[in-house]
Amino acid sequence: MATALVQALLHRLTGQTDLALGTLVAGRDRPETQDTIGFLVNTLVLRQTVDPEAGFRALLSTTRATCLDAIVDQYCPFEALVGAVGAPRDMGRNPLFDVMVVWQLDEAEPPDLHGLTTRKARYDFPFAKFDLGFYFSRRGDRIVCQIEYAEDLFDTETAGALLARLDTLAAAVVADPGQPVGTLPVLPDAERALVVEAFNATGTPLDTRRTIIRPLLDRVAASPSAPAVLWSARRPLDYRRFAARAGAVARRLAAGRSPSRADGRGLRAEIARSAHRHPRHPDGWRGLCPARRGRPAARLAGMLEDLDHPLVLAAPECRAKVESGAARVLDLHEAGQAEPLDLGAPDGLAYVLFTSGSSGRPKGVRWNSIRS
């Protein structure tokens, strides 16, 4: 029963159907060894296929047969088995299995030895012998389980959660032994509520009918003096001035004219952005498409062609690269200040992103404001 419960637990947690567990035999079933002083324990490997469609009763019957078959061969030393199958040896893990399941007999009182005083002594192992070890025993009318775990792989909280899941699974088996193994519950009520409800409680009040520019305008109203653009060697640009400059450039774009160069100061762009009028938005709303100036010329030319003669914002040093019959270039210089435009509709075009082109010609993908 204990082995079948652990098999069902591991299957439900991992989805694996081919499981190999380890167990121990005392090695004292012969009369000549029953009174021998010494450590005669041997390790057995219980490899078994778990059928998720079968009920737990069927799993228990199969596990019983597996255990009996293994006990028949209990006199084969574990080391000899490892050598016979040619299992690879790794100093960081045990060969053939990682999880141990053991049924321990009731704790007996210390033996009464003539001339000696005997008592129980507590001993804490300095390390775990396996990744996981489930040690079952009977205490009065209860069956208890202790878990041993490798601290490099698990912490105390995780080990406690494994025990709680084993307890949940055992309760479900007692309630309905015929329930398919693949549907046995393993999450306690509190953990299930956390995973199913709390983790998915991600609802956030959000006005999905707002335009793509509205979050920026809200930020400008809330923190007009906060830094919006950081330059490596220049004074940061706050949200008020950033929005004002963006508004001026947007109005020039809407008019299709180049920004003014009155004071001679340039607002250099690391990214040139092409803007094109979408046929579904005759009101003048434009979608943006980022185009790094380091892109290969052929890729850039293909993008400009697909964008159907776009308007391009470019720094002076980028103008020659994009100026052609396929594009109209607007120098990105100081354009003054103006109120930002809030054009378009919430479900209108926001920008266009091109794929990498690893499987052929790069393709432009349209994103509307709601998706953005």
Distance between the termini: 54 Å
Task: Please give the order of strands in the largest beta sheet.
Answer: 2-1-3-4-5
Helix content: 25-40%
Report the top-level CATH class of the largest domain: Alpha Beta
Beta-strand percent range: 15-25%
CATH topology of the largest domain: Chloramphenicol Acetyltransferase
Mean pLDDT: 80
- Contiguous low-pLDDT stretches (5 residues minimum) are 257-285
Largest sheet: 5 strands, mixed
In CATH, what is the homologous superfamily of the largest domain? Nonribosomal peptide synthetase, condensation domain
Topology, number of strands: 13
SSE succession: HEHEHHEEEHHHEEHEEHEHEEE
User: What is the radius of gyration?
Assistant: 36 Å
Shape: elongated
Count structural domains. 2
Topology:
Layout: H1 2-14, E1 18-25, H2 31-34, E2 42-49, H3 56-72, H4 78-85, E3 99-104, E4 132-139, E5 142-149, H5 156-175, H6 189-198, H7 214-222, E6 227-229, E7 237-238, H8 239-255, E8 271-277, E9 286-292, H9 297-306, E10 311-314, H10 319-322, E11 328-331, E12 349-354, E13 364-368
Parallel strand pairs: 1-3, 3-4, 10-11
Antiparallel strand pairs: 1-2, 4-5, 6-7, 8-9, 8-10, 12-13
What does this structure look like?
The structure is a single chain. α1 (2-14) packs across α3 and α1 packs across α5. The chain contains ten helices and 13 strands. It starts with a helix and ends with a strand. The chain is elongated, with a radius of gyration of 36 Å. It has a five-stranded mixed β-sheet. It has two domains: 2-106 and 122-198, Nonribosomal peptide synthetase, condensation domain (Chloramphenicol Acetyltransferase, 2-Layer Sandwich), CATH 3.30.559; 214-368, Rossmann fold (3-Layer(aba) Sandwich), CATH 3.40.50.980. By secondary structure, the chain is an alpha/beta fold.
